[in-house]
Structure prediction request, 163 residues.
Amino acid sequence: MGKQYSTKRASSFKAASKSPSKSKSPAIKTATSAVKSLSLTPEAKELLSSRKGYRTETAYGEGYRNAIPVIRHELYELNNISEKPEIAQRLGLSQHATISQIENTINKKFGNDAKVLWLTTREGVKWYLEEDDNDPDSEADEDDIDEYRIPDDARLIVDSSCS
Prediction:
């Protein structure tokens, strides 16, 4: 399996998990029944049913996996604060939960070494690589796409439709 990471504007999701194994396909936590009141995009349904997702490190750099710093970065530095209520709800908290409550819940459910990855479909990665606003000459290179196995006990924390 080549490297395949996910980041698709059309639709993507972040999944939280315990520290992944050192295998070629790191583990990611996701659960379809996390919060029944929140709907899922077709892409998230596909990833959850196939138990695999894709991403590219070309766009985001390697090694950023620790759940708490990644979530803080997404919320506060990238101004994705609108994801906070969904993260809280998918973790079983009120949509009005504080970042401290979210962090405590992640630590309790997944441990202090919890990991998150933003995954999408293979087509989502290709779309992102070809449509990246930051690089008008970008092309989808299959070697830049990494595939990850999603463990049965993974937890979906954000299901975004970014188109």
Q: What stands out?
A: Residues 12-160 form one domain.
